[in-house]
Amino acid sequence: MDFSGFTKEDFDVFLIDGLEPRMEALKTSIRPKLEALGHYFAPALSALTGEEMFAHVAKHARRTINPPKDTWVAFANNPRGYKMLPHFQIGLWETHLFIWFAVIYEAPQKNEIGGRFSKKARKIFKEIPRDYVWSLDHMKPETLPNKDLKVNDLLTMFDRLQTVKKAELLCGYTIDREEVIQLGSEALLAKIDEVFKTVTPLYLIAQNMK
Fold this sequence. Notes:
The chain contains 6 helices and 7 strands, in the order ααββββααββαβα. By secondary structure, it is α+β, with helices and mostly antiparallel strands. The protein has a 7-stranded antiparallel beta sheet with strand order 1-2-3-4-7-5-6. Helix 2 packs across helix 6.
């Protein structure tokens, strides 16, 4: 596999001023690595979920003024798109790398998915590791540490997914940029694989397969 890990220069792309210069740097330095991760993990996620998964590298095509503050590769069971479906993500902010299971606001099945999560809240609380994190907005870097949450906090998030139009829910793991750089390629691939195995049960619940 042609993946060499992420470097300081990759993270520093998000410090480049201007839409065109930052997009050019994204295309030349980060996008090839995300495409490599897509090729590597799509078959692995297909095996984990029992559904054929397709990789979608962010193109940021709609942007006309503001340069992207993060970028990613997403995995879903549809070759044409992922935003309307439960999916997985690997991506970068300037400060860290994220590995997510995600249901974002475009997903029309959010109400049903939130209900399925609510029914299994105690099981989810028990099985998600304490050092994992949650997010309620994929466009912000801030996260909610799982170790600080109780079952009722999860139930509140699951209820919000059912009742708030713009609600989102993401669960996974983040790694600070310095650690990502130190890990190199093999250790990072192993960590991503471990996280995907841990959050796949959430995907199966969301898809009503578990």
